[in-house]
Amino acid sequence: MTSPVDGALELRATPTAADTVRITVAGDLAFDTYEALLAEATDVIKRHPHLRHLHLDLAELSICDSLGLSALLQIERFTSADGARLHLDNRPPALDRLLAITGTYDRLVREATDDQSVPGVQATAEGRE
C-alpha cells in the first residue's frame, strides 16, 4: 500500500483465515473519509457470513476525529450484532488517548487474554509493539 495523500483514506481488506478478515487503514479517519471505512467494514461483514474476527490494522492511521471514532463504534456494534469481534490492532498513541478521553477505550479495546483461544491471532491490547 502506498502512503495516502493528505486527507485521504486507503483501505485494504484481506482474509487471513476462514473466520478472520484484516482491514488495513492508512491515512485520515475523519469527517470526509469515515463513510469509506463504514462501507468497507459493512461489505466485509456481508461477504463473510462466518466472520468471527474483524481486525483493523491502524499502524498507518494519521488522525481520527469524532466521526472517525463514531465509525469505529458503529463497526463494533455491527460486528457484535453478527457474533463477531472487532480488534483495533497497532493503534497509534493518539488514538489510545482519544479512546481514553472519550470513555470508549474499554468498549473498543479488549484484554489480550480474550484472544488466547483463537489460533493465529495476536492481541495488541497495548497498541503498537
CATH class: Alpha Beta
Strand order of the largest sheet: 1-2-3-4
Tally of alpha and pi helices: 4
| Poorly predicted spans | 112-129
Mean pLDDT: 86
**What spatial form do the alpha-carbon principal axes imply?**
globular
CATH superfamily: STAS domain
**Biggest beta sheet summary:** 4 strands, mixed
Q: Would you write up a description of this structure?
A:
With 129 residues, this protein is of the alpha/beta class. It has one domain: Transcription Regulator spoIIAA. 34% of the residues lie in helices and 28% in strands. It has helices at residues 34-47, 66-81, 93-102, 105-108, and strands spanning 9-17, 20-29, 53-64, 85-89. Helix 2 (66-81) links the parallel strand 3 (53-64) and strand 4 (85-89). Helix 1 runs parallel beside helix 2 (66-81). The two termini are 21 Å apart.
